[in-house]
Amino acid sequence: MANHISAIKRIRQNEKRRLHNRYYARTMRSAVKKFRSITDKKEATERYPEITSLIDGIAKRNIIHKNKAANLKSKLAKQVNAL
């Protein structure tokens, strides 16, 4: 266990941030999974800006890496174009 008050506080902060980040990462993964199940091109085209905005926001807050966000958006765009 940590001996310094600042170290104990840091442990508390890290745990709180970990849970917060995990919630947003899980929400994003669920949204991507739901988006991938769309088979209608019109609906996918309408929903694509929403999902990219969500992914960009999560990357901006450093919950996922910016390259991972770019890869996800690229794959989703390819899926929309393939429909």
**Low-pLDDT windows of residues:** none
| Global geometry | elongated
CATH topology: Methane Monooxygenase Hydroxylase, Chain G, domain 1
What is the C-level CATH assignment?
A: Mainly Alpha
Radius of gyration over all CA atoms, rounded: 17 Å
Give the biggest sheet. none
Number of structural units classed as domains: 1
* Class computed from helices, strands and strand pairing: mainly alpha
Number of strands: 0
Q: Helicity level, as a percent range? A: over 70%
- H/E series: HHH
User: At the fourth CATH level, what is the homologous superfamily?
Assistant: Ribosomal protein S20
* CATH architecture descriptor text: Up-down Bundle
β-strand amount: under 5%
Structural description of this entry:
- The protein has 83 residues and is an all-alpha fold.
- It has one domain: Methane Monooxygenase Hydroxylase, Chain G, domain 1 (Up-down Bundle).
- It is 83% helix and 0% strand.
- It has three helices and no strands.
- The chain has helices spanning 5-36, 41-60, 66-82.
- α1 packs antiparallel against α2 and α2 packs antiparallel against α3 (66-82).
- The model has no long low-confidence stretch (mean pLDDT 94).
